[in-house]
Write a structure and sequence with these properties.
The chain is built from four helices and six strands; from the N terminus they run H-E-H-H-E-E-H-E-E-E. It has 179 residues and is an alpha+beta fold. Strand 4 and strand 5 form a beta hairpin.
């Protein structure tokens, strides 16, 4: 959890609760189940690591020879690269990187939206809010929903606050108007 975001969110909540005229805007939303992790959770595979090792080793050997160092140093670097490449090939790699467990999420869409648009941001909400909000609808947003920002969503007489820092959209997030 990002403690700085949590502190900013609490300060924002306090300002909203005491402000007489907060800036509001109507936006569509959708709730769904999924991981609240960021889109930058990509892990390298065994093949990518092998290519990087071989290219880096080739460049190192070429540089050693280009600068006129004794060939023994280049041979040592080449054998070290070969050993690292061998370890890369035989080392176990997890086919599925560990992921954050799925939970209730809220996707907020742009104020002027057409069918098939991706959400502006996605954040985790509580299970009670997930049940209360339903699958989709329109809510009054206070603040500016975007990745890493602070905001709140009024639906009827209930105010929903993000539980995690909002992230950007991912490919598997539901598009606006999708069933």
């Amino acid at each position: 959890m990002d403690l700085r975001w949590q502190e900013r969110q609490r300060a924002f909540q306090a300002r909203v609760l005491i402000d007489d005229d907060p800036a509001l805007g109507l936006r569509p939303y959708r709730t769904f189940l999924g991981p609240a992790d960021r889109a930058d959770d990509r892990h390298t595979g065994r093949g990518e690591r092998l290519v990087v090792t071989l290219v880096a080793g080739g460049v190192l050997v070429s540089l050693l020879l280009a600068f006129g160092l004794p060939r023994e140093f280049a041979a040592l670097a080449a054998s070290l690269t070969g050993g690292i490449a061998l370890m890369t090939v035989v080392s176990p790699s997890s086919p599925h990187p560990p992921r954050e467990p799925s939970g209730p999420l809220l996707a907020v869409y742009p104020s002027s939206v057409t069918g098939g648009m991706a959400p502006v941001c996605v954040t985790r909400i509580s299970a009670d809010e997930f049940d209360r909000l339903g699958t989709e609808g329109f809510g009054t947003v206070v603040g500016t929903p975007r990745p890493g920002a602070t905001f709140g969503l009024f639906v009827d007489d209930h105010l929903v606050w993000p539980r995690t820092p909002p992230r950007g959209p991912r490919r598997d997030d539901p598009r606006f108007g999708s069933a």
